[in-house]
Amino acid sequence: IDRNTIAFHVESINPSYQLDFNEVLKLISNFRARSEIKALFLKYCNNNRAIGVNELENFLKKEQFEQPTQAEIAHLIKIVKESTANISKPNESLDDCWSLLEFETFLCSNDLNTVFEPFKSNIYQEMTYPISQYWIASSHNTYLEGNQFMGISSSAMYIKVLKTGCRCIEIDCWDGSDGMPIVVHGFSMTSAIKLLDVLQVIKDYAFYASDYPLIISIENHCSDEQQREMKQLFCTVLDNLLAIPNPNERIVQKVLPSPEDLKYKILLKSSDSIVNADINIEKNHRQSRLIEGLKEIIYFATTSLSTAMNQPTPWKIVSFVETQKVSNVADFVNLNSNQLIRVYPAASRITSTNLEPWIWWNRGCQLVCMNYQTIDDSMIWNCAKFLDNGNCGYILKPNFLSGFYDADLELPRKNPSLKLIVEIISGRQLPKLKISNTKNTISSVFIELTSQGFPCDCQLKQTTKVQEWFKPVWATQTFEFQFFAPECAIFKFAAKSNETTLAYYALPVNCIRPGYRIVPLQSEIGKYIPLSNLFCRIEITKS
């Protein structure tokens, strides 16, 4: 905003140019004002130029596709009026009505009018199916803060990852020089941390963001002596959080327990034998054979894909690198309907870039392991996917990926099952693109809309470019998207300048809320940017 514009608004509030706190709030309110919202207000307000219970009910039903009760509407009016009490003009509206300011406050509220469907911020899916029926948020080499060769190892990374709702983490155990196991990336120059410290952090934060089971994938390279110490540490630190396998029950139980059955439990996974060399071909080293004592607390053994295809066993996790070839996709999908499959990044990803997780999600793989320290496009899609179902780290797979798969993978249905229409109206306070060696700090800005999922559902569309970052307006630019498998699709809004992403927001297609909605924006490192958003109108048609 140029200085003359600021001076004009300040003078209109107080000619002395000396603003108190409430006047500063009014100044901010003036800058937030959206003419496009005023047009909506005038369309629905009553003769007193206010929106009361009846007018708001009409708006919510016609434009927002909601069916609230009058009591809910009256409560909504009350809480918005309370939030604007310091910046509303005296007698600007009646006690039970909204003024333009209050209507605008409601429409621009991340809490009250976000594009994300509110009830899906809670756990709403059925959690009593076998654990193999869910996608599970998963981390690779969780202890690393940076790259795979010289990065810093930190127990704090476990805190960071667990706070996101991640439900599968990894520990690489090696012999420590003092006789106690350490966690480190083998054959590299990464730093090491004590296994004890890692387990204490896991105990404290395992169920910080989710009540559902946490899987710890152990890559074991310890000697027999230090494996005994490993068992002692797991048992004493994690204690009754550990789920101990019962061999007798597994003889008769042919399906895995559910996330509900395993609430507040930690499940250990490790390779039970050195003979499974094909599992770790990308690791350039083999794991140590588990001692019998440690085997007793391992909930999931590890097996290879070829072995599982011939002899499927629900109590063993198939684990392989992202470059693994799948010859028969239908058989593969049917396998993981009752058996967990874990995919991890190739060893060539030295800088901790991420694999493309949707490739494996589309094949029904539950545990697609990500380098959480790297916020690249793949990680953005991963974070967006697991916003669903209360961000608990477990998302129920659709039927066609749960043992009923008989269609071509590229086209899960014969016809689209959802049509999404997005109208980009305006934005507020988009981050500037700083251009070196020039006084200009902004070039043209546009909004890019992208969907990711099955190949038939991958789409990209863009608005026109505008030369404004603080209050950009795109008028009415409308885009249509059709989805064959919306259950697997993710949608991203991105504010861009040239080829640089200024800010973004991504969410599952099934979590998008129709109507006039606010889209909060995040920075390139995934942090929400205060007051930065897009204003959109969305229509959803399901067939």
Describe the overall structure.
This protein has 543 residues and is an alpha/beta fold. The chain has 15 helices and 19 strands. A hairpin with a 6-residue loop joins β13 and β14. The longest helix is centred in the middle third of the chain and has 15 residues. The radius of gyration is 27 Å and the shape is elongated.
List the helices and strands and how they pair.
Layout: H1 3-13, H2 21-32, H3 35-44, H4 53-62, H5 70-83, H6 100-107, E1 134-139, H7 156-163, E2 168-174, E3 182-183, E4 193-194, H8 195-205, E5 214-220, H9 224-238, H10 247-252, E6 266-270, H11 292-295, E7 300-303, H12 305-310, E8 316-321, H13 329-335, E9 341-344, H14 357-361, E10 367-370, H15 377-385, E11 394-396, E12 418-428, E13 446-452, E14 459-462, E15 473-483, E16 490-497, E17 500-508, E18 515-522, E19 528-542
Parallel strand pairs: 1-10, 2-5, 5-6, 6-7, 7-8, 8-9, 9-10
Antiparallel strand pairs: 1-11, 2-3, 3-4, 12-15, 12-19, 13-14, 13-16, 16-17, 18-19
